[in-house]
Amino acid sequence: SMLPAMEEPPIGGNSSTEETGGPKESLVVIEVKKQLYLAGPLIAGCLLQQVVQMISIMFVGHLGELSLSSASIATSFAGVTGFSLLSGMASSLETLCGQAFGARQYHLLGIYKQRAVLVLTLVSAVVAVVWAYTGQILLLFGQDPEIAMGAGSYIRWMIPALFVYGPLECHVRFLQTQNIVLPVMASSGVTALSHVLVCWLLVYRLGLGNKGAALANGISYLANVSILALYIVQEHLDRPLKGRVSRHP
């Protein structure tokens, strides 16, 4: 009578493993789908934001080798000293807003975003001073005088984009931490498509040349952050204390 009892557990153990094998695989698939749902739009949105500056460089490329060289160096300098700095600082919202959202302290989300916008604006003012002397800085490092002066002129016309890029990154992080990613991708896509028209109008129609291409970055970033801000107001995400209910438990 003891033998059947000893044999049953291994058989029962195998059957339970087989039974739980299916659900475990399905949970993995579900989790992968959730990750792709969040990561896919975020990746697309990030790439589309970078496409904006690339489009400007492409338009400048049709103006001559000197303009292209100057714009390329200016864009690289701006990315290292300005845009990357602001993006890194804005990433702190992922931690702060993520904690507040997870703890259902929704009133803190808007507070964190507003403080981040203020801090990044102050930092942008300091970076703008550095950008104003980019030509002289490049000359100190032995850059060709014509290219250095062209890069200095191009990056000065990118200063408006600097002040808009900070709030844009803050709005993106504000929505991202609430699992709201599709509007970020959509706004970036619309901005990237319209940026072609903006560049054409400023570079060729108005005859601003490479200065117009640099200024177009600021206009497109402003359009992007305006779309996200309107979405936040429309969805009442700007009302943290009254009537603020999360759609993503």
Automatic annotation (TrEMBL):
Does Ligase show up as a keyword for this record? no
User: Transmembrane stretches, by residue range?
Assistant: 36-61, 73-96, 117-141, 147-168, 180-203, 215-233
Q: Using the record for this protein, list the coiled-coil segments as residue ranges, or answer none.
A: none
On whether Transmembrane helix is a keyword of this UniProt record, the answer is yes
Q: Name the UniProt key words of this record, in alphabetical order.
A: Membrane, Transmembrane, Transmembrane helix
- One Gene Ontology cellular component: membrane
Q: Where is this region: Disordered?
A: 1-22
Looking at the record's lineage, which domain of life comes first? Eukaryota
Which InterPro entries is this protein grouped with? MATE_fam (IPR002528)
Q: Name one GO molecular function term.
A: xenobiotic transmembrane transporter activity
Protein family membership: Belongs to the multi antimicrobial extrusion (MATE) (TC 2.A.66.1) family.
The protein's name in its UniProt record: Protein DETOXIFICATION
**Organism the protein comes from:** Aegilops tauschii subsp. strangulata (Goatgrass)
